[in-house]
Amino acid sequence: xxxxxxxLGSRYPVIQGPIxxxxxxxxxxxxxxxxxxxxxALGFTRELGAIKEMITEVRELTDKPFGANLMIAMNPANExxxxxxxxxxxxxVTTSAGSPKKIYPKIHELGMKGLHVALDFSFxxxxxxxxxxxxxxxxxxxxxxxxxxxxxxxMVLIPLVCDHVxxxxxxxxxxxxxxxxxxxxxxxxxxxxxxTRFLSAAESPxxxxxxxxxLNCPDGGTTLLPLGGMNVRIIINPRLAEKMNxxxxxxxxxxxxxxxxxAWRSGDFDLFPAGGGQVSASITEIKSxxxxxxxxxx
Length: 298
Ligand SMILES: Cc1cc2nc3c(=O)[nH]c(=O)nc-3n(C[C@H](O)[C@H](O)[C@H](O)COP(=O)(O)O)c2cc1C
Hints:
Blueprint: H1 3-8, E1 14-16, H2 25-33, E2 39-41, H3 48-61, E3 67-71, H4 78-87, E4 92-96, H5 103-109, E5 113-118, H6 121-129, E6 134-138, E7 144-146, H7 154-164, E8 169-172, H8 178-186, E9 191-194, H9 196-199, H10 208-215, E10 222-227, E11 230-235, H11 238-244, H12 260-266, H13 289-296
Parallel strand pairs: 1-9, 2-3, 3-4, 4-5, 5-6, 6-8, 8-9
Antiparallel strand pairs: 7-11, 10-11
The structure holds flavin mononucleotide.
């Protein structure tokens, strides 16, 4: 058994990528029941009661292990959340968006393991040094938040990181089927984290409008939107395309990050464009989580 599978405890090394505040215990349980590692996305969630309810609901639906994602710099409630997770028997978390230095001693003190999400080589080395038990290494093709730096794609990043760290690596970014899964393993990763493909799954709680934005996304149909100190990968829509073509418009001033959650929940992508990875271009039908995972690991 690989080191990553030992940490996850799932049948397959296929991790559900957290998506902002988009949570549905049924989706988490569906991933677990299909052999993957389901995850609650707790990056922004501060309501401890709601977190306890979600954990209970997942537990009622599956006896398989599941985890949760914490966004280090975004959530002052992280320590409390970790305690709740540990008490509920959650053994593995992922951490992202911040320095892992302070949070890993707490994770280990609670008897848990953590995988830190690294968006480039230097962050990956720092996270391994800071005590992360494993890494989710996410190339520039991924959906979600990105740095403002020039970034490498997974074809470069995964082998580079794997050559320099001793901890296991899961590859995140552009994996949507068995070809991507096998490519990630060939590059040295022990598993994968899946964002956009699961976001558009039948059981995903994303709105129909969001799923359609992914299904209709052409090659080259995503871009990086600057948001203060970071970028976010989003799917280009007609309104955004107009703005991108206007030389007088500074895109960093056009959208407010505070509207992101509202827009993504409601499907109002003029308010804030839909999130999605480059791999959206190759996703053309909605499938169940079970079908996605079975095909992926086949
Ligand atoms: C809309 C969107 C929101 C995301 N939100 C988070 C998040 O809250 N925390 C996190 O660690 N990663 C987040 N991610 C990254 C995913 O969990 C995953 O690593 C990434 O999507 C992998 O790339 P893929 O979309 O090509 O599969 C997000 C991705 C997307 C598409």
